[in-house]
Design a protein that fits this description.
alpha/beta, Aspartate Aminotransferase, domain 2, seven-stranded mixed β-sheet, two-stranded antiparallel ribbon, 9 strands, globular, binds pyridoxal-5'-phosphate
Length: 322
């Protein structure tokens, strides 16, 4: 095995870190250096460089949680070296994920029996959750069109022009036309009436936002549901709704429990929520939950077995820390 050559150093040089040779030159920016740097010096230099970032606790412009209880920090560090996807090796981590999915789906009024496992998955955030939900809508729509012998090459999605960039990413990455309802002076969310007018037989779903990124406003999902039901009845289409509850999903159930925006509305088929926004968890966790089994097409779920037993996965990335 080739050994790297370490720059000669004495323990004394490391003990007086700021007087040591290592801190005289900055770390290389473009290429691996010929000689290694002792870990103590590397830590000191990188930690000092990071001081130039601003202090997250002073960042009042972020939706994302910047403080957690110390016990949560401890739990994160205890689990970070477990690969979340390896369900066979880390069944308790998987069980904790499943409990979260169950609790969130029931909080959003999914109608499932007492002991039934809800359909959903933990993601890196709402963006990944939205990609997965969008793919499920696209595949369901394609399957329906194929069965009807109709063309299935021009899917579109209807949203307000106030959607977060992840919806534009979904549309571009997965080749779905984005039909945006324009905003107008004094009205900065999607107008349900105009959204329903844009729906046609190529529409895979209408996406409503609970907690617009621009101003935090909730879109009127109930009105959207009612207008879309009328249109579906007339046209015999079955256009569904996704609710992007990235910010509002952990607010509405507590502050506005009687507001109907979730699975209480029959056309709402999937919902995403960011744990790291008002779920009060550090960045790196989101969720997508589906109304029921038939809303997540089986062919999108991969079954892999090289880590042990059969493991169903439906995520964009494979490995990540527990
Ligand atoms: C409404 C909405 N949807 C989606 C996202 C993307 O969420 P994430 O950062 O968790 O990927 C955001 C982020 O600000 C958002 O406000």
């Amino acid at each position: 095995m080739a050994l790297s050559e370490t720059t000669r150093h004495s323990d004394a040089a490391i003990d007086s870190m700021f007087a040591s040779l290592y801190l005289q030159n900055s770390l290389p920016k473009f290429e691996l250096p010929e000689k290694s740097t002792p870990k103590e010096a590397a830590y000191q230099i990188i930690s000092d460089e990071l001081m130039l970032d601003s202090n997250p606790r002073l960042n009042l412009a972020s939706f994302v949680t910047t403080w957690m209880e110390p016990e949560c920090n401890k739990l994160i560090m205890e689990a970070i070296n477990k690969n979340y996807v390896d369900m066979d090796e880390y069944p308790v981590t998987t069980e904790l994920q499943n409990r979260c999915v169950n609790i969130i789906a029931r909080m959003f009024h999914a109608s499932i029996s007492d002991k039934e496992q809800a359909i959903g998955v933990g993601t890196v955030g709402s963006s990944e959750a939205i990609m997965l939900a969008g793919l499920a809508f696209k595949r369901n729509w394609q399957n329906k069109r194929k069965a009807q012998g109709k063309p299935y090459d021009k899917p579109n999605i209807v949203t307000g022009a106030n959607v977060q960039v992840c919806w534009e990413k979904f549309a571009r990455y997965f080749e779905v036309e984005l039909k945006e309802v324009k905003l107008r002076e004094g009205y900065y969310v999607m107008d349900p009436q105009k959204a329903v007018e844009l729906v046609d037989d190529n529409t895979i779903c209408v996406a409503a936002i609970l907690g617009s990124t621009y101003n935090g406003e909730f879109e009127d999902v109930k009105l959207l549901n009612d207008l879309l039901m009328e249109k579906n009845n007339k046209t015999k289409w079955d256009t569904p709704i996704h609710v992007d509850a990235a910010s509002g999903g952990f607010i509405a159930p507590f502050l506005y429990p009687n507001l109907e925006w979730d699975f209480r509305l029959p056309l709402v088929r999937s919902i995403n929520v960011s744990g790291h926004k008002y779920g009060l968890v550090y960045a790196g966790i989101g969720w997508v939950v589906w109304r029921g089994k038939k809303d997540l097409p089986e062919e999108l779920i991969f079954h892999i077995n090289y880590l042990g037993a059969d493991q169903p996965t439906f995520t964009l990335n494979f490995s990540k820390g527990g």
